[in-house]
Amino acid sequence: MRTIAILRTELSKLFRQRITWASFVVVLVLVALITWGSHHERDRIDVENTLGDQFVVAGKTVTALFVAHAVMQVAMVVLIPLLVAVVVGGTVAGERQVGTLRTLLARPVSRTAVLLSKLAAGWSYTAALTLALGGLSLGLGHLVFGWGDLVIFRGGLTIFDPHLGLMRLGQAYGLAAAAMCTVAAVALLASTIFDNPMTAAGLTVALLLVCGIIAQMPYFETIEPHLITSHLQLHREVLEAQVNRPELLRSAGYLAGYTVVSVAIAVAVFQRRDVTC
Amino acid sequence: MVVAGMLPAAGAAHALTPMQVVQRALQVQQQVADYTATVTVSVSAPNVQIPSRTMKVYYKRPDKVHVESEGLAIVPRDALLMGNLGRHLETNTQAGLVGTGTLSGRPVWCVKLTPLDAGPGSGRMLCWIDRERYLLLRSEVWDAVQKAMTISFSYSLVQQRYWMPTQILCEFSAKLLDGSGEQARVTVGFTNYRVNTGLSDSIFEDEG
Questions:
Q1: How large is the ipTM?
Q2: Cβ–Cβ of B176/A155 closer than 8 Å?
Q3: What CATH architecture applies to the domain B3-199?
Q4: What is the pLDDT of residues B74-90, one digit of tens each?
Q5: So where are chain A's domains?
């Protein structure tokens, strides 16, 4: 019961922060901008213009599902990891900075329970933010463009009918939320190590950027498959016509590994942290 | 479809010139002023995944097409325009007989259409035309060096008067669709034909 009470407290604290709500506003602005851009550029995006006059193209290319996919492609690379790092990175370091962590740990609950509650709250936020991204883009996309197929241009052309497209997009957003939970776990680890929330968030983002840069360098190609950034985009697997299950499971395994290791280290560090000063 | 027993042009004896053969085929097509049909399209290409689509197609001579489809559908224009012989004749004003033979059991002429000022880099079109019904059974559109598209037609008699395509197979380089140089196949099936019903131009107003 105490654990549930702590979790409720942590959720309440996290969702009362201005930065938490500001991140939802940022997501809304991004969705609105991409919807506007898709509307403005829809003639250029249209399949008919890509194929030329040898083909007759009927139906819409830009639909609610198209917008939800486009938003996901853009947001999952930097924006959502950044927001998750900022919010979750402040959960421990922020309290330490303002001095409330000492009070919190004076209560008769284990440090592990406190940290895991913060992690659960962070994961709730991460899932809510990712799903809000999907929900808002589908809603706004539906208002502007209506319903229709999911058209994906990546190494070819894939068209899913609306039912299958929605199902695949739902799976993709679910996997993206799970991948972002790994980022949240890394941010929590940084938050237990550093006293300044911005340092924790900054180093989490820096880690992702460095991994991303290393992955592009030919002489690091042997370690590239093991980097966290090589697996954060696992949602793309379910947006292929044929889902590559072994590759999907491999990425899921890596992300689970990164999560478990990050949380284990975070617990170990938090247990030993001196919070008296 | 298999081309069998193609004879060289010199061996073929007939009264019509190659251009007259193509003109006769065009006249047969021009009996159809308009049509509506239910069309099913399936696309097969290496990196392309498009579900099979059924749509309603409206055609009006010479080249107006309107397609009503619930989902996104891609159809080669020439398939809906019954080979688009009229447009190819506008750009290719020379006709030469390549040979005669049989195609899918039908006796055919094979005619090559080229521009008047044809050089080594010019495009061209090969047409296999039924010698008895003057129907376009197969066409190959070539650009300077390679075959751009092959279209094979199967016909049946509609309203006991008009020979209309019931199945069209289009083969072309998938480069346009997926950037690869591999072959793409689009199969177009036609049912529920209604021919020469006097379609209004307003149906086609949204089409560029």
A1: 0.74
A2: no
A3: Clam (2.50)
A4: 888 888 888 777 777 77
A5: 2-272
